[in-house]
């Protein structure tokens, strides 16, 4: 049975890897493990050890705290949420949303701001 924290950390690994345009194979090569192990980490099926999380954070160019952002252990326990139900509520679990975010941040900052303003106006009109 997956623990919600393992699922959350795995999901954050997947999001960051995807945002960097990195495959599971590439991350596995950087960390020194097979891509199948990366798959198990990303689904929360296997728990990531502290030293392995350190290596993954270094490879993905984020602090270790990145993997725990958005995790509120008390609210997960109080809601009785399992790993699957917390993933369903995450907008970035959608590949299309992730691709949109990655594309958005690839746009130069001044143009990105104009696009953001346009999106806000269009969403308010709906």
From TrEMBL:
<dbReference type="Pfam" id="PF01381">
    <property type="entry name" value="HTH_3"/>
</dbReference>
<dbReference type="GO" id="GO:0003677">
    <property type="term" value="F:DNA binding"/>
</dbReference>
<feature type="domain" description="HTH cro/C1-type">
    <location>
        <begin position="13"/>
        <end position="67"/>
    </location>
</feature>
<dbReference type="InterPro" id="IPR001387">
    <property type="entry name" value="Cro/C1-type_HTH"/>
</dbReference>
<protein>
    <submittedName>
        <fullName>Transcriptional regulator, contains XRE-family HTH domain</fullName>
    </submittedName>
</protein>
<dbReference type="InterPro" id="IPR010982">
    <property type="entry name" value="Lambda_DNA-bd_dom_sf"/>
</dbReference>
